[in-house]
Specification:
Number of helices: 9
Helix content: 25-40%
Order of helices and strands: EEHHHHHEHHEHEH
CATH superfamily of one domain: P-loop containing nucleotide triphosphate hydrolases
Radius of gyration: 29 Å
CATH topology of one domain: Rossmann fold
Strand order of the largest sheet: 3-5-4
Largest sheet: 3 strands, parallel
Structural class: mainly alpha
Strand content: 5-15%
CATH architecture of one domain: 3-Layer(aba) Sandwich
Length: about 260
């Protein structure tokens, strides 16, 4: 049986990238190139086959004990402390924006004051408890989210009976357990109180279905590429007071740029 030469892509399980770069093209292919920035050193004396230990990058923060990191990673992010949530968010940005410099990444940081501590929320972070979570997360949610029709002008005149007879309208029986909904006239158009970002259009549909209370009492906007075009959704936002919007990252980014 002929000997099969292993590919250069067959890496061992414990393989780790270092800061040392290798030239892959040209006449010096195979030589090691170290851009550690040390111009004073003389690299000409390095012999063929000798290895030089690459300098480890400077660490900005001290590593946590292994046990503490394991326990924290096993804890859902919604159950962690506010500081741990901010750290997890920054780590996600670092991975997503690795092509940017550290200064550019800092410009994209979400201010810590904008991150709400949701660790006191006792229920699981699932669609079943999404409405309860919005009530917890939004301050004064009854006046901001339970709005029957913020797009309709308010009127103090009495409605007439449907049969055409004039006179005061009989008062309807009110449910003592159901509090009246407020009407908002100063809600800015195009600026939803709550913006939920979902991973896909299918997930966005599931999120909208999990908000029956707000879908009935408020205006829920669907910002994903299911049936509407970007121009149609942009027109909708400019002319409609929305309280809760659900969408995908790509569509939301296009609407912000519009």
């Amino acid at each position: 049986m002929p000997h099969v030469k292993e590919s250069g892509d067959a890496l061992e399980d414990d393989f780790q990238l270092s800061d040392t770069e290798y030239l892959s093209d040209g006449e010096n292919a195979g030589e090691r190139f170290d851009d550690s920035g040390d111009d004073d050193g003389d690299n000409s004396s390095a012999t063929t086959g000798s290895k030089r230990k690459a300098e480890a990058p400077k660490k900005k923060k001290q590593n946590k004990p292994k046990k503490a990191r394991t326990e924290e990673n096993n804890t859902p992010i919604g159950k962690r402390s506010r500081a741990s949530q901010i750290e997890a968010l920054n780590d996600s940005q670092d991975r997503a924006l690795e092509h940017l410099s550290s200064i550019e990444i800092e410009d994209h940081r979400i201010p810590e004051s904008s991150v709400k501590d949701v660790s006191p929320f006792a229920l699981d972070h699932t669609l079943v408890n999404l409405e309860s979570f919005l009530k917890f997360a939004v301050a004064s949610w009854k006046s901001k989210l339970l709005v029957k029709d913020a797009n309709a002008p308010t009127s103090n005149t009495s409605d007439q009976h449907k049969n055409g007879k004039k006179g005061p309208k009989k008062e309807e029986k009110k449910d003592p357990k159901k509090k009246p909904l407020e009407t908002s006239s100063d809600l800015p158009k195009g600026s939803p109180v709550v913006l939920i970002v979902s991973s896909s259009g299918i997930r966005s549909v599931d999120v909208v279905r999990a908000l029956p209370l707000f879908a009935e009492a408020a205006k829920v906007g669907k910002l994903f590429a299911k049936h509407l075009k970007v121009s149609e959704q942009a027109y909708f936002l400019k002319n409609t007071c929305t309280h809760v919007c659900v969408g995908t990252p790509n569509r939301i980014e296009k609407l912000i740029a519009d």
